[in-house]
Design goal:
It contains three helices and seven strands. The longest helix has 29 residues. It starts with a helix and ends with a helix.
Amino acid sequence: MTGSAWVVARRFIPLFWLCVVLQLRAEESPAYHQSVSVVDGQPVLELTNDSEIPITAFVMMEFPSLGIEGRTYFDVYTNSREEVIAPGATTTRNLSSLKGSEGKVRAEVRAVVFKDGSTAGDPIWINAILARRVHLYDRLLSLHDLLSKQGGAGVARERIIAFL
């Protein structure tokens, strides 16, 4: 295998195996439930983890009454500020509230990824979550390759930072 082919394989083999494992486990999908309510005049979505496995990612779609669609991704692996949703726990997320919508917002969680790699929801949205993870992984590999070239050359830390 040539050097460039190895770089490509190194980046996409993990995604391939992840897709295979998730398809095999799709029948065992743990459960969750959701509800939309209004708290202090602000619409919120409540997502409850009904499984025995923590939730690490989900994608939420919002449909305000004015017809604008919004999509929000929550993922502990791509956003360090997010926290896993423990088994039995509920998380509350504020929803967009546009003037003139009178708080009428419909929202739903389209897909969930659990800590053990199992999933629940629409396969298209599950793949969207995983694609975001692969994109981050690819960016980190590119950064690693760039730093590896600079790090061993005796370049000062300040020059590497300026280079980046």
